[in-house]
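CORE FACILITY INTAKE
Project code: CF-77B
Contact: R.S. (postdoc)
Sample description: multi-component assembly, two entities in total
Requested service: structural model of the whole complex
Turnaround: standard
Below are the sequence entries exactly as provided by the requester. Do not edit them.
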Amino acid sequence: MRESIVIEGLSKYYNGFLALDNLSLKIRKNEDVALLGPNGAGKTTTLKLLCGLLRPSSGAAYINGINVVEERERAVSKVGAILETPEFYPFLTPEETLSYLGRLRGMRGRRLGRRIMEVIELVRLEEWSKVKIEKFSRGMKQRLAIAQALLHDPPILILDEPALGLDPRGMMEVREIFKEARKRKTVLLASHLLTEVAQVCDKVAIIDHGQLRVYDSIAHLKRKYRSFERAYLKLTRAAI
Amino acid sequence: MSEFEKLKIVTKYELLKQFRRRRLYAVVAVVIAVVVSILAGLPLLGKGYHEFGPGVDDVTAMAGMLSISATIAAIGVVFFAGDAIAGEFEKKTGYILFPNPVRRTTMVIGKYLACYAAIALIILLVYGIVCTSLLGIYGQIPIEVGGSLALSLLFAGSVLSLTFFFSSISKGAMGATVMTLAFVLIIIATIDGVLWMAGQPSWFLLSRAGDATVMVYPGFKAMMAEMAGTYGIQVGAIEYNMGLRTAAMTAYLAVCLLPSIWIAKRREMLKFTRGAI
């Protein structure tokens, strides 16, 4: 299987409003692709469809060749995801939350305990690992969201604005984490931050009003439009 | 990993979540307050534990009165189960939970079992207090306590199913809680009143079916008949068939839980703002 993610003619209506219009994309194994577009372009909708949180109005999506609609549980088993601005159960601690999610993915015992410590250290929440999440700031929750996405060391990462809510240092740290992760993972990252996209991904799918405008390498777009920013502005007809 | 193993994990962590919430302890506090008010209230109001009236068995009458607190506990489940399904969507915790390889059916059943385990523990606590009190006051525990406990556990399951149904169709936890309480305490009570005025049976209503938890005590039934007679109410028409009431509660449990699972499975993680699409 060369393609990790395949999207075929995916469309999604919200009460008559067309949010995603016949989107098709193929992302090969270990590729790093950014979904780039202005607010309301259809980025989050695409990621939610891929994780089975929405049902498509038409079309299909496959993860490692498994149809997400027909076999959601099997399809998402190799995926780590951050969607929207996730919230956690406030009464649990990061350790308990990660233990819960890890067990649901079949991890247990010492391996789970060791991995929980690793990801907590990676996102720098060591001092907060036994504190109830109700005391956490937005940025700390985002760090925990990153930790849960990486917990089971998935080969595919689906990330929706992973640096949202982080301070500048946090944003840099997160970029470093994903730069390291991309070496051996397939990454699909939705963002409207050009700098983030350019630093983490090689390829970009620019979408606007639910339609795919271009799917190409960032290097090629830079050459063609003289800069990545110009390419974005030209292709989306919208402000950054 | 099998879905059964996943169900055990979901139930375990949902139960942990319930034990960390203040709402659970608020329900315990209310129930204990009711028991204490019955036990302390009677002597304070000059009424002894051995003078409920002619033809009334004091022990079972008292057991029935104390068992009312178990019915209150069962209704209290609404306060910590209202957000079981709706909360995942409203508070966005579903964005973390749902992308995991677990069926929604497993998640809903796991949540149900956790909420049920929590309320069952409270009900067991109540009956522990009831038995201790009866033993202390009368030196005996009527055999009907066991039946009342079983019916209370069934009633709690019915109320929980109803709460899950409203939680599955509500946008938010508050809506689910208010709708369930309005249904149980206002709508059903109104229908019950209309049926009573029309001289029609009402055993199939959830609240009436739930009365079985105290009607199981013959002494309590006699006491209620005596009180009703005082107010000129005809109680002869009241259906005391425990089998019918048990069947009604079982029906509520199944009929409300199954649609809530089906609705939760089909529900999408939507955010109705343009910025999020």
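Facility notes:
- The CA atoms of residues 25 and 125 of chain B lie 12 Å apart.
- Residues 272-277 of chain B have pLDDT under 50 and may be disordered.
Invoice: internal transfer
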